[in-house]
Amino acid sequence: TDPTASSLGYSLPKSVNGSDSDYIDDLLKQAYYLEKADSNYVEAIDILNKAADIVPDDPIVQKIVLRLKRLYTKLSDKKGLLKNLDELYNTYPDQLIGITAYDHSVTLFADELNFDEALKRSNKLIEKYFNYSNSKEKNAWALLEQGMLYIDTKGKLSNNAQAQSCFTKILSDFSESEAAIILTELYDIEAPEKKKKEQIQNFSLLPPSPNPSNPSTTLKFILSEESKVSMVIYDIMGHEVWTLNNGLSSKYSKGYHSVVWHGVDNKGKPLASGMYIVVMITPNFRQSQKILLLK
Questions:
Q1: Are 37 and 77 found together in one domain?
Q2: Looking at the structure, do residues 155 and 87 belong to the same domain, yes or no?
Q3: 231: domain range?
C-alpha cells in the first residue's frame, strides 16, 4: 500500500477538498520520494513551493517551510534558502506561508550573528502576527525571540531595557502562552497570579534526573487523577525540539509516571549541548522544568 502524506509527517489541509486535497497529497508524496529515494532535493523544493502556492493560508504550510529548510540544509545553500523564504513573503505578505517564511528568516540572520537585520525583521514579524487572526501564540513566540535577540546583541546597554519590555508584554498580554511559561522558567520571573491559581497542587512535573543529562534524563510526573498529558521540550530560543508521543496527548492513570528523553529531537537526531525547557501540559495544568544537556 502506498503511504499517504499524513503517514509521511504531513497533516493534510482542511481548507481544500475533493480533487485539490488529492492533488496536494500527491505533491507531498512526490516531494518525499524525491528527497528520500532519489536525493533530488532541487526538484523536491520546487514541488513543495508549488504545494504552498495552492494552500498559502493553511496550517500545513508551516511544515512545508520546515521541510524546505531541511532540503536547503542538505544542499548547503543558505543563500538559496533565504531567497526562497523572501520570495514566499513577498508573494504572500499577509498570508500564513509568507509570515511563516519571514519568521524563519529572522532565525537565519540571528544564526549568522546579523542581529541588526534579525531585529529589523523581528519588528515587522510581530506586526504581521498582531494583524493575523488566531496568532496570539505565535505573537508571543516572536516577542520572546526578539527579547533573546536583544540580549544576544553585544555592547548595547539599552537593549537590556528593550528585552525587558518584550518580556513584560508577553507576561501581560499573552500570560496563557507557552512563551510565558518558558520565560518564567528561564529568568525566574514571577508567573502571573491567574496562572498560579489554575495549577492543580496534586499534579506535578518533578525535576528531571539526572540533570545535567549526558545525554539521557528521566522526566517524572505525578497525577492526582486520570488525565490526558502532553509534554514538549524547547530550546532557549523557544523552538520546539521534541514532543512526547509525537505530539499526541495520551491518557495516563492516577499516580507516578516516568519518560526517558535521550537528548534527541523528534527525528532521533542528537541535539547540541545547552539549556532546554520541558513543559508538561494537561487540560487544567502546566508546569515546566529546566534541563541542562551535556555531551
A1: yes
A2: no
A3: 199-293
**Same-domain pairing of 260 and 187:** no
pLDDT-derived band of residue 51, with 50, 70 and 90 as boundaries?
Answer: very high
Look up the CATH number of the domain holding residue 65.
1.25.40
Instruction: Tell which wins on pLDDT, 245 or 269.
Output: 269
Query: What DSSP string runs through the chain?
Result: -PPPTGGGT-PPPSS--HHHHHHHHHHHHHHHHHHHTS--HHHHHHHHHHHHHHSTTSTHHHHHHHHHHHHHHHTT-HHHHHHHHHHHHHHSTTSHHHHHHHHHHHHHHHHTT-HHHHHHHHHHHHHHHHHSTT-HHHHHHHHHHHHHHHHHSTT-THHHHHHHHHHHHHHHH-TTSHHHHHHHHHH-PPPPHHHHHHS-TT-EEPPPBSSSBSS-EEEEEEESS-EEEEEEEEETT--EEEEGGGG--EEE-SEEEEEEE-SB-TTSPBPPSEEEEEEEEETTEEEEEEEEE--
Same-domain status, 206 and 194: no
- What's the rounded mean pLDDT across residues 69-78? 92
